[in-house]
Write a structure and sequence with these properties.
It contains 11 helices and 18 strands. The protein is of the alpha/beta class. Helix 3 packs antiparallel against helix 4.
Length: 530
Amino acid sequence: MTAWTRTRSAESGARAGGRRAALAALLAGAVLLTGCGAGAQSDGTSADGAQRRADGVPAPAPPDGGGRVAEGDRDDTADGTQGEERDAVPAPDLVSTFALDVDTASYGYARRTLAAGRLPEPGSVRPEEFVNSFRQDYPRPEGNGFSVTVDGARVESGDGGDWSLMRVGLATRPSSRTAERPPAALTFVVDISGSMAEPGRLDLVKESLAILTDQLRDDDSLAVVTFSDEAETRLPMTRLAGNRDRVHEVVASLEPTDSTNVEAGVSTGYDVAVEGRRRGANNRVVLLSDALANTGETEADAILERIGSARKEFGITLFGVGVGSEYGDQLMERLTNRGDGHTTYVSTPAQARKVFVDQLPAHIELRARDAKAQVAFDPGTVREFRLVGYENRHVDDEDFRDDRVDGGEVGPGHAVTALYAVRLEEGASGHVATATVRWLDPRTRAPHEAKGTVAADRLDDDLWARGTPPRLQISAAAAYFAQRLRGAETPGAPRLADLAERADGLARRTEDASVRQLAESIRGADRLLD
């Protein structure tokens, strides 16, 4: 998928109203707080209810293309009031809105594919998932909301333009192992089709489930559904207290069989999850599969309908864990997007342990539901911007405060990063952008917002200078890498060989093994592309 671009019009003058267009999906298909200073952070407080919608939004542009926007901005405010007591709504053409996404599967699968000597399919490369695969250094909020960090650096674009890379960072407070959380009711839907016989698939799933069974609390519940050509309930929803041996026996007995009927597995899994749901618990379906559907509803429409209805009616969300050298990335992502969940990908026991031991038990509790971000650029300083990734998470600008519109599910300790290539007006100074995140409290569904701003002087330092935050540089390297893999160009992107050297230096500087792995993947892609 590709970034969309908004550019100020030098010749067209103001246009009446806005244009609305849905951003084409790859797969078929937050501000009532005291303002922060440049690069500042804030926690969210309860926001008021629905506000008047903006006039509309422009059509997204093709990869790195140009779109025209109106000269000037609007004077009316979000709820129709006038004056300085409310934050004015910027011209719609200078607003970018998207649902938060904590998926990482695209990067994990790309690494696996490159290690096997193949380039990933461009359609499976989602830059935001590459960026969000790396640890960030954002401050964490004290409460259950988000911190908002906005910073950036100047890049050499080679076209004479004054381009910067702007980073919007949104982070939630981690959850300690001893923290009180509601009990969990987890339904594991396990693919046991023939393709799962390959080493690193079903054997990895069984090992992961066995470890997780020992990590969960006695008051948690677990169910197991398997599917191949048909689905079977191996274990109904069962409290773990006194039943761990029974769960281990069920997991150990799993063996690969015939074809892959994902529709049967997901439908039966949700039936079991609905029947065994617990009031006040975190009810979740965990799909473990290579997502290579070849029987049943392979087009996913029936599966999507089942997932969507269970999410809306019962609040059951979906977590997708992908496995296998051949992996149906697009189907898995489509399913979890509809299930208001996220995806990850595992190919080694170490990765599986990280997901099922370090992440899933801590992330069962949610920090935010239907979380969306909106970035408003200042028409006096910004000439053009390009959001890197998030195309299939696009939200119409006018729907930012419409809480009926789906956003993203975010758990404790998550960090979400969005990168923008921003071209400033010549000699620009002062305010560049305001980033706002809006989310619903997972229990009360009360809306909250938090925001942060950035000024032009925070974008002046060279991206690769020693004094630039290394985590910003790592984000840039991951994003540039992803863009190259999918055939898109981004202002300031180095050649892959140079990017690998940058990543090597960052790995030494941060002593982060995952960054060293990034450098290796970049080198592998460079060899294949040559």
